[in-house]
Design brief:
- There is one protein chain.
- By secondary structure, this protein is α+β, with helices and mostly antiparallel strands.
- Helix content is 16%, strand content 39%.
- The strands form four sheets. Strands 5-6-3-10-13-8 form a six-stranded antiparallel sheet. A six-stranded antiparallel sheet has the order 11-12-9-16-19-14, with no helix packed on it. The protein has a four-stranded antiparallel sheet with strand order 1-2-7-4, with no helix packed on it.
- The chain starts with 6 loop residues before the first strand and ends in a 5-residue tail after the last helix.
Length: 266
């Protein structure tokens, strides 16, 4: 494994972007839709898979790219390479409010496991694959945590966390219980499973789902406070539902205020 060595700088607070500096013939890979801006002289190509195995045959590339469909991602990725002399810069932006986390894969045994929609970009040579669960419970009840992505290689990768990020260092045997959607990623030595919440009242009235993830150390776990699914659900609940009417601000006075202010559709 010989990923390209890239320098980077992260800008912003709540809506961050990462700027990568590419030397001549250096390149980065990214998911579609994360690109922000780049200097003149950087070439953009759409490729099957991640381009980590340049000598792999066409069939192998198709099979590798096809696996990405299981995570809901596109068959293709985009590669950006510096084709001229001199350093060039390219930037990738967060898809929604949160933090960009730099992952040096050499610090984690050349492998990091993350949520399927957490990956932002990486140095060329980093392989982006899928991490299949070997446990039946994860498959049936894991929800957002069922199929995870794996980042393998010896370069830098960047993942996105919604809201505020928490990093937890777990000692051997130490357990951490997390909402499945709040997992950003974890190191390969972490044991990951799904556990039933338990209790009739919790099941019926808890409102937190029937299952949560149990992560057991040793290793490092990254947690996000605002999963995109939770954000999207809150937006959907607050959006007007049928007939142009909103769900209200909680009282009759709110409706009267809308009429007075003119913010009311008839």
């Amino acid at each position: 494994m010989n990923a390209h060595e890239i320098d980077y700088q992260i800008f912003g607070e709540e809506m961050q972007y990462v700027e990568l500096e590419l030397d001549p013939r250096e390149a980065v890979i990214a998911e579609a839709g994360n690109f922000m801006m780049m200097d003149d002289g950087i070439k953009m190509d759409t490729i099957f898979g991640d381009g980590a195995k340049e000598n792999e045959g066409f069939l192998g590339k198709v099979l590798g790219a096809g696996k990405r469909l299981l995570t809901g991602e596109s068959l293709f990725m985009t590669i950006f390479s510096n084709e001229i002399q001199g350093k060039k810069r390219i930037s990738f932006a967060s898809p929604y409010p949160g933090k960009i986390i730099p992952i040096d894969l050499t610090r984690y045994g050349n492998k990091f496991i993350c949520q399927k929609d957490a990956f932002l970009c990486a140095a060329k040579g980093v392989a982006v694959g899928i991490e299949f669960s070997r446990r039946l419970g994860r498959g049936f009840f894991g929800g957002e945590g069922f199929i995870m992505q794996k980042l393998e290689g010896d370069g830098m990768a960047f993942v996105h966390a919604g809201g505020t990020m928490a990093r937890k260092e777990l000692s051997p045997g130490e357990k951490l219980k997390i909402d499945t959607g709040c997992i950003i990623g974890f190191t390969q030595d972490i044991d990951y499973n799904i556990e039933f919440v338990g209790g009739i009242k919790n099941t019926i009235f808890g409102g937190e789902g029937l299952f949560f993830a149990t992560l057991t150390g040793p290793g490092t776990v990254y947690v996000q406070s605002l999963p995109f699914s939770r954000l999207a659900n809150r937006i959907w609940q607050a959006a007007p539902q049928g007939g142009g009417k909103d769900k209200g601000e909680g009282s009759i006075l709110g409706g009267i205020g809308d009429v007075i202010s003119g913010d009311r559709n008839f």
